[in-house]
Design a protein that fits this description.
Layout: E1 2-5, E2 13-15, H1 29-32, E3 33-34, E4 46-48, H2 49-56, E5 59-62
Parallel strand pairs: 1-5
Antiparallel strand pairs: 2-4, 3-4
């Protein structure tokens, strides 16, 4: 599976509590788990589609 990043600004960040709405196995939870780089995270833990795509893909492409 190849994952292509066109614009890193659009990462698909959502509240971590919404993970169950994705209907994905629990084993993928850590791939989506994301805390932003601020000293005090903005609105706590999140899921991040881009992080999961990078971790779970076989190849990474950028444009």
């Amino acid at each position: 599976v190849a994952f292509c990043i066109h614009n890193i600004a659009y990462q698909g960040r959502f509240a971590f509590a919404d993970f169950s709405l994705l209907n994905l196995p629990e084993e993928f939870k850590s791939s989506f788990d994301f805390i932003d780089g601020y000293d005090k995270p903005v609105k706590g833990r999140k899921i991040n589609w881009m992080k999961a795509g990078i971790l779970e893909s076989d190849k990474l492409l950028t444009v």
